[in-house]
Amino acid sequence: MPKPTLCCSRAGGYCDRCDLLVGLPGLHVIGVDRDEGIGAFTVTVESEPEVMGCPRCGVVAHGHGRREVRLVDAPWAGRPVTIIWRKRRFVCPDPGCPTRSFVEQDEDIARPRALLTVRACRWAIAQLRREHASILGLACQLGTTWKTVWTSIKPVLEQAAADPTRFEGVSTLGVDEHVWRHVSTKPIEDGGRGPKELTGIVDLTRDQHGRTRARLLDLVRAAPAPRTRPD
């Protein structure tokens, strides 16, 4: 080629193709690094400078620099990914407003004070449901710890479990007993890891093509076997 083709057309600006590849709406990629030792990627992103109103009083806030927040993202090409989000900081100029300063938030990207991005939580839950992955295995793939993964996806799972619409359209149920052999029988409050015997409830409704959904609806503690006295 007589002239090289660059992905980023102008120095110092944002590249729409890099943004499209990373896929975080509203955020622009400003840097990508790779740890050659473990092959993990670190992607630095930021939003464009724009007018922002105070979330409490609505007065136009003053920009006050940026604050870097590190988030675990879904793996890319089998490699762990860390997002460094350079969040904009603002100061409310209204002396009567109780909100002195705040940082930008976007709950479509990550919840406030989250450790994982929203799509990393969705990826982890999909792996649990479809691939029967363990939390520890997911933590290894994400390049983080068991506690970080579980504390991030637990509220999402609890919210989904409390949603009654998940039972809509279910006409056939399957029930299966399961025993976790690596889990002790001690209760969680005594340092155990929860129930050992569980009953899985699965949606076996067939679609218009006759294919079964095989969707896990719930896991409940199995009823203990009745004790019998010898004659």
From TrEMBL:
Entry-linked InterPro entries: Transpos_ISL3, Transposase_Znf
Pfam families: Zn_ribbon_ISL3 (PF14690)
Source taxon at top rank: Bacteria
Transposase IS204/IS1001/IS1096/IS1165 zinc-finger domain segment(s): 51-94
Xref: PANTHER family: TRANSPOSASE FOR INSERTION SEQUENCE ELEMENT IS1557 (PTHR33498:SF1)
Protein name, entry field: Transposase IS204/IS1001/IS1096/IS1165 zinc-finger domain-containing protein
Lineage of the species this protein comes from: Bacteria, Bacillati, Actinomycetota, Actinomycetes, Micrococcales
